[in-house]
């Protein structure tokens, strides 16, 4: 396994680019319309609340990652907090699944924007087909090595952050800097809708964990992991707010909700004209493509780390190469299946459920067992747990009313993951040293 990881192969700015790549790809492009649908005209403010909740959460990850930088850092945090237990393994697997779900979410968003730019209705089989093609292309980039991922992520990050920021400023300028959507009679769900929308905003910021999961490969990781996370979150807060206000000033709420899977493109047309529309589509394609590349890079390393820790099973399935090569393929296959089976809204809901549960498990484990060792502030971790719990409860309640099946599916998968990990770890205890992770 050690040959799969290269210390110092990811610079500070590579890490920032990967973090912003995942966040901006999912956050402002895939989720703006869904957040507006739940929160109503005040939806831009949801990103501020989401950033505050994420800041409390990020504290635990930064303290742990700076102290114990690791490739596959979420698995490391959970194992140190809980030991090699079913809880640690299940929570780590939920994190991996939420990251794979993010890839599916962003891949379908890429397809929606591409088809909208071509003047084709984004429905039918074309959306999953294009999404899967993007995932396969991202796989090709990833197998070319860390430096390719790093410089491509940096290039795309500069293009998309600069371009999307320019879009936001231009749209606001064209709209006369009117900060706020028109109500147009579209019903909002009040405070519960606002809090529920915060679950999706948190999902839009969770890409900072991409940096945690590449910890051992980052230059001077004890300093740069925390710095990369803080810089990435700060950049995304500014970009999200700018674009959310720009969309709100360009379109009435009903139009935002109607075009929720490609809201930026729809907002560009009235304020920036045809040229602005096509430039916005191009920016969306750059942002989503880089998001998929960065997410696949991180989740494959996390799965490899969990394999190394003997927390999940592994099989070659007759393939050549090392464990990381195989987990890369597993990631691509699962992401492709999710892209085919679920629409953007359901993918986002499942990702929010998985991430919030895993996040609470991490904070509780570190609070109980590691805060003294880290000289960390326990009240920050407890606040993070409380905020996550409130958001999760409200979001689950809203989804139970509108789409109970996705709530059942999400919590059934979580239960199955915990049961499976308990069985797997019990089996490995009773069958020690029969084979290693490569099946030898």
UniProtKB/TrEMBL annotation:
Pfam families: AA_permease_2 (PF13520). GO terms for molecular function: transmembrane transporter activity. Keywords: Cell membrane, Membrane, Transmembrane, Transmembrane helix. It is found in: Cell membrane. The keyword Membrane applies. GO terms for cellular component: plasma membrane. This is Amino acid/polyamine/organocation transporter (APC superfamily).
